[in-house]
Amino acid sequence: MAHQNLVPWRFGPSRESLHHRLGAIVLCVAAALCPPGTFAAEPTVEKAAAVDQLDSPRARVIGQLPTLVRYRLDRAFPVAVALVRDVAECRELFAVLGADGLEKLERTIYLPPQPGEGQTCRGRVTAFTGVGQPHTRLCPAFADLTHDQAVTILLHEALHFAGLSERPLDPRGLTPLQINRMVEAACGH
User: Taking the model in full, what pTM does it have?
Assistant: First the structure.
Protein backbone atom coordinates (compact mmCIF):
# COMPACT_ATOMS: atom_id res chain seq x y z
CA MET A 1 0.00 0.00 0.00
CA ALA A 2 3.02 2.32 0.20
CA HIS A 3 6.28 2.67 -1.78
CA GLN A 4 9.27 4.95 -2.72
CA ASN A 5 11.71 6.09 -5.58
CA LEU A 6 12.96 8.75 -8.22
CA VAL A 7 12.28 9.26 -11.95
CA PRO A 8 14.89 10.42 -14.47
CA TRP A 9 14.60 14.04 -15.56
CA ARG A 10 13.47 14.53 -19.16
CA PHE A 11 15.72 16.54 -21.40
CA GLY A 12 14.56 18.71 -24.24
CA PRO A 13 12.07 21.52 -24.52
CA SER A 14 8.86 21.41 -22.58
CA ARG A 15 5.53 21.57 -24.39
CA GLU A 16 5.03 25.06 -22.97
CA SER A 17 8.37 26.32 -24.33
CA LEU A 18 7.60 24.84 -27.75
CA HIS A 19 4.21 26.57 -27.82
CA HIS A 20 5.82 29.82 -26.66
CA ARG A 21 8.47 29.59 -29.38
CA LEU A 22 5.87 28.81 -32.05
CA GLY A 23 3.81 31.80 -30.91
CA ALA A 24 6.89 34.02 -31.07
CA ILE A 25 7.67 32.86 -34.62
CA VAL A 26 4.12 33.59 -35.78
CA LEU A 27 4.26 37.06 -34.21
CA CYS A 28 7.65 37.93 -35.65
CA VAL A 29 6.65 36.72 -39.14
CA ALA A 30 3.46 38.77 -39.00
CA ALA A 31 5.36 41.83 -37.87
CA ALA A 32 8.48 41.10 -39.97
CA LEU A 33 10.48 41.48 -36.76
CA CYS A 34 12.20 38.12 -36.60
CA PRO A 35 15.64 38.18 -35.00
CA PRO A 36 18.43 36.26 -36.72
CA GLY A 37 18.31 32.51 -36.05
CA THR A 38 14.54 32.37 -35.47
CA PHE A 39 14.07 29.83 -38.22
CA ALA A 40 16.59 27.25 -37.08
CA ALA A 41 16.90 23.81 -38.65
CA GLU A 42 14.09 21.29 -38.27
CA PRO A 43 14.03 19.47 -34.94
CA THR A 44 15.98 16.24 -34.79
CA VAL A 45 14.35 12.84 -34.38
CA GLU A 46 15.60 12.77 -30.77
CA LYS A 47 13.94 16.10 -29.99
CA ALA A 48 10.70 14.96 -31.64
CA ALA A 49 10.78 11.76 -29.56
CA ALA A 50 11.30 13.82 -26.40
CA VAL A 51 8.23 15.90 -27.25
CA ASP A 52 6.21 12.74 -27.95
CA GLN A 53 7.24 11.37 -24.53
CA LEU A 54 5.70 14.44 -22.95
CA ASP A 55 2.38 13.58 -24.59
CA SER A 56 2.04 10.00 -23.33
CA PRO A 57 1.51 8.07 -21.24
CA ARG A 58 -0.11 10.20 -18.59
CA ALA A 59 -1.74 9.23 -15.35
CA ARG A 60 -5.47 9.89 -15.02
CA VAL A 61 -6.03 12.24 -12.09
CA ILE A 62 -9.26 13.48 -10.56
CA GLY A 63 -9.13 16.17 -7.92
CA GLN A 64 -6.29 18.33 -6.72
CA LEU A 65 -3.20 16.39 -5.68
CA PRO A 66 -0.57 18.26 -3.69
CA THR A 67 2.08 19.66 -6.05
CA LEU A 68 4.89 17.33 -4.95
CA VAL A 69 2.61 14.27 -5.05
CA ARG A 70 1.58 15.18 -8.61
CA TYR A 71 5.22 15.76 -9.56
CA ARG A 72 6.21 12.33 -8.30
CA LEU A 73 3.22 10.68 -10.04
CA ASP A 74 3.89 12.41 -13.36
CA ARG A 75 7.46 11.14 -13.42
CA ALA A 76 6.84 7.62 -12.10
CA PHE A 77 3.78 6.72 -14.17
CA PRO A 78 5.46 6.54 -17.63
CA VAL A 79 8.22 4.39 -16.13
CA ALA A 80 5.67 1.98 -14.61
CA VAL A 81 3.92 1.73 -17.99
CA ALA A 82 7.23 1.08 -19.77
CA LEU A 83 8.18 -1.66 -17.30
CA VAL A 84 4.88 -3.49 -17.78
CA ARG A 85 5.12 -3.06 -21.55
CA ASP A 86 8.78 -4.08 -21.89
CA VAL A 87 9.55 -6.56 -19.09
CA ALA A 88 7.92 -9.98 -19.48
CA GLU A 89 8.26 -10.85 -15.76
CA CYS A 90 6.55 -7.59 -14.85
CA ARG A 91 3.64 -8.32 -17.23
CA GLU A 92 3.42 -11.82 -15.76
CA LEU A 93 2.58 -10.42 -12.30
CA PHE A 94 -0.70 -9.21 -13.81
CA ALA A 95 -1.24 -12.19 -16.12
CA VAL A 96 -1.23 -14.57 -13.12
CA LEU A 97 -4.21 -12.56 -11.84
CA GLY A 98 -5.92 -12.82 -15.25
CA ALA A 99 -5.31 -9.14 -15.96
CA ASP A 100 -3.54 -6.94 -18.48
CA GLY A 101 -1.09 -4.73 -16.59
CA LEU A 102 -1.07 -1.95 -19.20
CA GLU A 103 -4.85 -1.82 -19.18
CA LYS A 104 -4.91 -1.65 -15.37
CA LEU A 105 -2.39 1.21 -15.30
CA GLU A 106 -4.21 3.11 -18.06
CA ARG A 107 -7.58 2.73 -16.30
CA THR A 108 -6.33 3.64 -12.82
CA ILE A 109 -7.66 6.94 -11.55
CA TYR A 110 -5.41 8.72 -9.04
CA LEU A 111 -7.07 10.87 -6.40
CA PRO A 112 -6.24 12.58 -3.13
CA PRO A 113 -7.66 10.94 0.01
CA GLN A 114 -11.19 12.06 0.83
CA PRO A 115 -12.05 13.60 4.20
CA GLY A 116 -12.41 10.67 6.58
CA GLU A 117 -9.77 8.63 4.74
CA GLY A 118 -6.99 10.55 6.46
CA GLN A 119 -6.57 7.76 9.00
CA THR A 120 -5.61 5.43 6.16
CA CYS A 121 -2.70 7.72 5.23
CA ARG A 122 -1.08 7.53 8.67
CA GLY A 123 2.51 6.46 9.15
CA ARG A 124 4.40 5.32 6.09
CA VAL A 125 1.35 4.62 3.93
CA THR A 126 1.84 6.38 0.60
CA ALA A 127 -1.14 5.05 -1.37
CA PHE A 128 -4.11 2.72 -1.12
CA THR A 129 -6.40 0.92 -3.54
CA GLY A 130 -9.40 -1.31 -2.92
CA VAL A 131 -8.98 -4.79 -4.40
CA GLY A 132 -10.55 -4.77 -7.86
CA GLN A 133 -11.14 -0.99 -7.73
CA PRO A 134 -9.71 1.51 -10.25
CA HIS A 135 -9.28 4.33 -7.72
CA THR A 136 -5.87 4.79 -6.13
CA ARG A 137 -5.65 7.36 -3.36
CA LEU A 138 -2.23 9.01 -3.12
CA CYS A 139 -1.28 10.08 0.40
CA PRO A 140 0.95 13.10 1.14
CA ALA A 141 3.84 10.71 1.96
CA PHE A 142 3.91 9.69 -1.74
CA ALA A 143 5.81 12.93 -2.38
CA ASP A 144 8.64 11.75 -0.12
CA LEU A 145 9.39 8.65 -2.17
CA THR A 146 12.34 8.23 -4.45
CA HIS A 147 11.60 7.76 -8.12
CA ASP A 148 12.09 3.99 -7.98
CA GLN A 149 9.93 3.71 -4.87
CA ALA A 150 7.12 5.67 -6.53
CA VAL A 151 7.26 3.37 -9.57
CA THR A 152 7.06 0.33 -7.27
CA ILE A 153 4.06 1.78 -5.46
CA LEU A 154 2.19 2.50 -8.69
CA LEU A 155 2.74 -1.09 -9.82
CA HIS A 156 1.82 -2.41 -6.36
CA GLU A 157 -1.45 -0.47 -6.41
CA ALA A 158 -2.21 -1.57 -10.00
CA LEU A 159 -1.86 -5.17 -8.79
CA HIS A 160 -4.58 -4.47 -6.20
CA PHE A 161 -6.78 -3.15 -9.03
CA ALA A 162 -6.01 -6.42 -10.86
CA GLY A 163 -7.28 -8.40 -7.85
CA LEU A 164 -4.29 -8.96 -5.56
CA SER A 165 -5.23 -8.80 -1.88
CA GLU A 166 -2.85 -8.22 1.02
CA ARG A 167 -2.50 -8.66 4.74
CA PRO A 168 -4.01 -7.88 7.17
CA LEU A 169 -7.34 -7.91 5.28
CA ASP A 170 -6.44 -11.26 3.69
CA PRO A 171 -4.69 -13.45 6.29
CA ARG A 172 -3.28 -15.60 3.46
CA GLY A 173 -2.14 -12.61 1.42
CA LEU A 174 1.31 -11.08 1.13
CA THR A 175 2.37 -8.17 3.30
CA PRO A 176 2.83 -4.76 1.63
CA LEU A 177 6.61 -5.18 1.89
CA GLN A 178 6.44 -8.62 0.26
CA ILE A 179 4.40 -7.20 -2.62
CA ASN A 180 6.93 -4.40 -3.07
CA ARG A 181 9.82 -6.87 -3.16
CA MET A 182 7.93 -9.05 -5.64
CA VAL A 183 7.39 -6.02 -7.91
CA GLU A 184 11.03 -4.93 -7.63
CA ALA A 185 12.29 -8.45 -8.43
CA ALA A 186 9.94 -9.00 -11.40
CA CYS A 187 10.11 -5.53 -12.90
CA GLY A 188 13.86 -5.11 -12.45
CA HIS A 189 14.17 -1.53 -11.31
Answer: 0.70
3-state DSSP of the chain: CCCCCCCCCCCCCCHHHHHHHHHHHHHHHHHCCCCCCCCCCCCCHHHHHHHHHHHCCCCEECCCCCHHHHHHHHHHHHHHHHHHHHCHHHHHHHHCCCCCHHHHHHHCEEECCCCCCHHHHCCCCCEEECCCCCEEEECHHHHHCCHHHHHHHHHHHHHHHCCCCECCCCCCCECHHHHHHHHHHHHCC
Mean pLDDT within 63-77: 95
Average of per-residue pLDDT across 103-121: 85
What pLDDT, on a 0 to 100 scale, did the predictor assign at position 120?
Answer: 75
